[in-house]
Amino acid sequence: MTSLLLLGATGLVGGHVLELALKDDRVTRVVAPTRRPLPPTALPAHPKLENPITDLSSGLPDADWWTVDAVISALGTTRAKAGSDEAFRLVDYATPLGAARRAYERGATRFSLVSSTGANSKSSLLYLRTKGELEDAIRGIGFSTLTIVRPGLLGGDRSEFRLGERLASMTLKIAHPILPRRLRISPAHVVAKVLLDAAIGGEKGERIVEADQLSG
C-alpha cells in the first residue's frame, strides 16, 4: 500500500495520474498540492485525497503531508507561458527538485518523473537542457527506485490552448502510420499509468522509459 505525493495534478499528465491513483486500491493516500483548490465539478471530494493549497514555486512549506512513500512529478510549463528563462526553470527545475529533496528527507523511497525525449544537460536548447539537468539532480538525491519517463509530444485534451502543440498534434496524427514509434504522439493516459505503476511497485534502481515505449 502506497501513500503518494503528486506534483502537477492540474496538468495533462498529472490529471490522469490523479484519476488513476484515486481509483487504485494499492494507493491509500494522494497528496496533491495546488495553487488553487481542485475543482469539485471535475473531481468530487475523495477520502484518499489531500489537496493542500500552496504555491510550491514560492517556497516549500513545513507540513506533515511531505511524509509519503513515493512521489510523482508531472510539473512542467513552456518558456512562452512562463515568460522568461528564469521563470521557466523555477517551474521545471527548482520546484520539482526542492520537493523531491523534501519528500526524500521525510522518507520517500520511490520517485517517478516526467521528462522529455531528447533531455540532455549538455543541450544548447533551454527546454531539453533543463530537463536533463533535473534528471541528473534527481539521480543525486538517493531514491532507491527512480523512473524517468521521456515522452514525445503528449496526446490528450488540455485545459489550456497551445497553438503550436495543437498544430503539431494534428500533423503527427496524419503521419502516424508511417512514423517511427519514437516520433509518434505519447498518449497522456499511457504516460500516467507508467508513472503510477512505477511509483507503487517499481523495482529498485533506475529505469528510463523512452517515447517509443509509450506510443501506439
Number of strands: 9
- Tally of distinct domains: 1
* Top CATH class: Alpha Beta
- Overall shape: globular
Given as residue ranges, the uncertain stretches (5+ residues, pLDDT < 50) are: 161-176
**Percentage of residues in strands:** 15-25%
Strand order of the largest sheet: 3-2-1-4-5-6-9
The helix count comes to: 6
Overall pLDDT metric: 88
* Secondary-structure element string: EHEEEHHEHEEHEHE
Quaternary state reads: single chain
- The name CATH uses for the topology is Rossmann fold
Question: What does this entry look like structurally?
Answer:
This protein has 216 residues and is of the alpha/beta class. β7 (154-155), α5 (163-175) and β8 (186-187) form a beta-alpha-beta unit. α3 runs parallel beside α4. The chain has a single domain (2-213), classed as NAD(P)-binding Rossmann-like Domain (Rossmann fold), CATH 3.40.50.720. It is globular. The protein has a seven-stranded parallel sheet, with helices on both faces. It contains six helices and nine strands.
